[in-house]
Design a protein that fits this description.
This protein has four helices and four strands. With 104 residues, the chain is α+β, with helices and mostly antiparallel strands. It has one domain. The strands form two sheets. A two-stranded antiparallel sheet has the order 1-4. A two-stranded antiparallel sheet has the order 2-3. Strand 2 and strand 3 form a beta hairpin. The longest helix is centred in the last third of the chain and has 14 residues.
């Protein structure tokens, strides 16, 4: 799926990992994390947006960049991911950790 063709509302309804549309009345899962110091400027430029991010393994995931004044950022999360299942949440988390060796 080419995520760059989706608008913000469409990205918000999809799982970060499998890109399945998540019905509003179903449970969803979330994970968050920090980015490298080199990525801080990118985060600042994209606050409040949902972005497709291409991983080094070639897979695209959907990232949520919380605003600087958000609860998520206060809790130490520079970036968030929503998932349709525990399995997709775990896969997203593992892929992100693999992208940032030594940051686990």
């Amino acid at each position: 799926m080419n995520l760059s063709k989706l608008d913000q509302d469409e990205l918000l309804t999809r799982c970060a990992w499998c890109h399945k549309v998540m019905p509003e009345d179903e449970e969803c899962f979330a994970a968050g994390g920090k980015v490298t110091p080199e990525a801080k400027a990118f985060i600042a430029e994209n606050e409040g947006k949902l972005l497709p991010l291409r991983l080094s393994i070639g897979r695209e995931i959907i990232a949520i960049v919380p605003t600087a004044d958000s609860k998520a950022r206060a809790e130490g999360n520079d970036i968030l991911f929503q998932a349709c299942s525990k399995a997709c949440c775990a896969a997203t988390t593992a892929a992100i950790r693999a992208e940032l060796p030594g940051k686990n």
